[in-house]
Amino acid sequence: MNTFEAATATPALMTDMYEYTMLEAALKDGTAQRQSVFEVYSRHLPGDRRYGVVAGLGRLLPLIENFRPNEAQLKFLRDRHVISADTQKWLENYTFHGTIRAYREGEVYFPNSPILQVETTFGEGTLLETLILSVLNYDSAVATAASRIVTAAQGRPCMDMGGRRANEYSAIAAARASIVGGFAGTANLAAAMAYDLPAIGTAAHSFTLVHDNEEQAFRSQVDALGTSTTLLTDTYNVEEAITRAVEVAGTDLGGIRIDSGDLASMAQQARSQLDALGATHTKITVTNDLDEYSLLNLRDAPVDSYGVGTRLVTGSGHPTSEMVYKLVERESADGRMQGVAKHAAHKASDAWRKGAWRSYRYNVADAEYVVAGSQRDVEAWGKQHEGEDMRPLLITAIDHGDVDSSLATPQALLAARDYHRQQLEALPIVSRSFKAGDPAIPTLVEHVDPEGGQAES
Amino acid sequence: MNTFEAATATPALMTDMYEYTMLEAALKDGTAQRQSVFEVYSRHLPGDRRYGVVAGLGRLLPLIENFRPNEAQLKFLRDRHVISADTQKWLENYTFHGTIRAYREGEVYFPNSPILQVETTFGEGTLLETLILSVLNYDSAVATAASRIVTAAQGRPCMDMGGRRANEYSAIAAARASIVGGFAGTANLAAAMAYDLPAIGTAAHSFTLVHDNEEQAFRSQVDALGTSTTLLTDTYNVEEAITRAVEVAGTDLGGIRIDSGDLASMAQQARSQLDALGATHTKITVTNDLDEYSLLNLRDAPVDSYGVGTRLVTGSGHPTSEMVYKLVERESADGRMQGVAKHAAHKASDAWRKGAWRSYRYNVADAEYVVAGSQRDVEAWGKQHEGEDMRPLLITAIDHGDVDSSLATPQALLAARDYHRQQLEALPIVSRSFKAGDPAIPTLVEHVDPEGGQAES
After folding, report:
1. How confident is the model at residue B452 (pLDDT cuts 50, 70, 90)?
2. Where in the numbering of this chain does the Nicotinate phosphoribosyltransferase N-terminal domain appear (chains A, B) (predicted)?
3. I need a labelling partner for B342 at 20 to 30 A (CA). Which of B95, B220, B353, B354 fits?
4. What is the pLDDT of residue B343?
5. CA distance A318 to A45
């Protein structure tokens, strides 16, 4: 095992060092045992988009389940003087005992939506900050881009081909998150195996070039993969390649792919040519730096599916979701729970745990209610509004340490994709605009805490 | 072992499916055995920057060494009908036998620089496309951002704190790449363990908030971590916090950190206050969405070090390097090597393998020579220019399957950082401009191939 493998053998070091130094100090002074509520939220939507898409929960749950430094990792922490022998002992017995509530995968979110809530001791909650943010920030960025791209594709299937433009593990997470956003499959094999996703892909230009000529390349591919394969037709001359492709594979040829040039006009010419050759069922796939904006411009082109790469895995200009993880409530010396928040001039946040509901009017969402207060008061707010056209947004993903593993299955991933489209369709239609602007619905923060929104300082 | 762990147990599925389908077809028709040269290069520099920084090679080498699907992965490939029994047999015996030449880690690069060159059979070379690109594209994007940020920091140490804004594995790669670019350390523990990096970090706002008041938090931290610790002073009121910090820790307090607000003015006030309190050696660290542009604006502020997050791990606006992997030369049916290239209207590339030299005039680089031709002709070009003020840029990282593991050590990583600063200092001074523009030196592509640059079609 090399040092990278040792460092990643458990997710317990996928953290910032301060999480362990805070644990160290808090175990010494006793505050590590204080019951606490941490929340993940985002102050605004990247790029002034109209909505964000939550993704990563199903990937996060097994990471939290396996979060415990192993022997070699503990030795590293001791050798670096990050933790003491007492803290090592605490970590040896550590498993997450707390409760995590969260927006479902595929749920849309808005500024200040309480996307994920960790209720546990301070010690346990503080260790998970970086890991939770890493997973949600990246996966949600990709799912949000995917959702917009799928909307722009207007029903044509979109496939993830972006792995090469992202870190090799990000590629796997991106493939998964793209499904949440509505993608149909991925070129990435590790993602296909990890999450049981449809995989796609046939040949690169190098395959044509390694052969003595294009015809031999096409013949080889059809011999190996059958006539239903997709032939890449833009290595030399597209028109000649299409003629050759139909000669080699016959009119049953599954598809052609075009990866360069003016894709709309090339697809138009290719369709006409294929039809004239009798290959009326041969599909046209286009690829090459696509995103929601370029797809809008391809809306009238006779394209059957899209391969999307760079812009998908980099969040179409916004590669992170800017979510933060904040302590909002904790036990005081007297044992009572107390809302807390940073008070300094900038980046102020709302104290107390949040409940979240989305309200509807004639089946169209019109507001995100974020209700801040004690558990009792937030629950009372929910009861008070029962019967109204309002839907609670938080589900329980981990209940006192008990992980709901049904949220981490391949079935859950496909369900998240369906769920996302339903939620998106229930948003005001402005949500489908790609112009920067206000969130599709406003977030209304209501304070029902004892101090009327004033946290102690 | 869950399915994610199974899918990533070896790097062999961190690929696009078409690499295996191409292998399948090429093994059937015999072209898999053709000697080939693939090259990694970038058609332009993202954001019209003046230079790029190569990073990832030391991380890539062990991945290539371990690139062989294990039993479960082979079963997956068979079950999905990606490969046949014959291809499975070939893969069971696969190890990389080829030669890889590359720009050193820390080397600067320009459009069309042959950053990495794979010389091997088509079958072996085609399998590595996505993995090589994933590593180099992301790591180089981060190293390039890091290099610019370090330049803007004008000698003040920069620390990576971006892990939470990137995928949890990207975070580790980013910490490593930031070192290549000149960073001094990271908050990420997994990276610190994997690559033997200095780790930093003390406390978050939550640590102050979990305590009944700021004084208790400071006292707890100083008790646990000593007076040399860095106290976070912007949870409530910065001025009061600094007074409190010095009361608690004394004038030997190691440092304070400010994470919000107008950082320049706050640092100025904090410095005056600390000096007035006698804490003249207490350092000031600032953090909060920093990048090369904001650092330029902090140049006159009394800041001692920077914590850089989001913008570092997302490549400061350019999260990928847009490098591609192309077949440029291969054996023909007659056994001779032959330059090849895509010919279609867009994204054309240069056939034949490339040699690369950087020329200097009075110790300042003035051109990148990229020489395209047969191995013999490229070597002859190099000999012909021996004695001139010119430096070859490609080193051998893998020689006929033999990995130079000295390139993958922690020492090599620190050496890469030094090497990078030397190369950067030898570039025209425009390279340190943050304004978009032409590359700092031109890339001159010389064709010495038999056909004078014309590849066959």
Report:
1. low
2. 13-137
3. B95
4. 79
5. 10
Q: For residue A220, list chain B residues with Cβ-Cβ distance below 8 A.
A: 25-26, 28-29, 31
A323-331: strand order across its sheet: A337-339, A323-331, A35-42, A116-121, A99-103, A394-399, A402-403
Please state, in angstroms and rounded to a whole number, the distance separating the CA atoms of residues A202 and A219: 13
What is the residue-wise DSSP string for A335-381? S-EEE----SSSS----SEEEEEEEEETTEEEEEEEEEE-HHHHHHH
- With beta carbons under 8 A apart, name residues in chain A contacting B316: none
Token pair for B360: 């200097």
Beta bridge partners of A185: A159
Q: CB-based contact (8 Å) between A264 and chain B? A: no
Asked if A224 and B341 come within 8 Å (Cβ–Cβ), the reply is no
pLDDT tens readout for residues B315-324? 999 999 999 9
pLDDT tens digits, residue range A185-202? 999 999 999 999 999 998
SS3 B26: helix
Q: Kindly report whether the global pTM for this prediction surpasses the value 0.95.
A: yes
The DSSP call for residue A104 is: P
| Interchain contact, B80 vs A202, CB within 8 Å | no
Angle, CA B387 vertex, CA B383 and CA B391 arms, to 5° = 80
Nearest CB to A225; choose among B21, B206, B332:
B21
The string of pLDDT tens digits covering residues B364-418 is 999 999 999 999 999 999 999 998 999 999 999 999 999 999 999 999 999 999 9
Q: Which domains does chain A have, with CATH numbers?
A: 30-64+92-126+322-447 (3.20.140.10), 144-317 (3.20.20.70)
pLDDT value for B451: 62
State the smallest CA–CA distance between residue A199 and chain B in angstroms.
7
ipTM value, please give it: 0.97
CA B283 to CA B302: how far, in whole Å?
9
Whether B188 and A14 lie within 8 Å, measured CB to CB: yes
Task: Check pLDDT > 80 for residue A456.
Answer: no
Residue with tokens 């003046």: B50
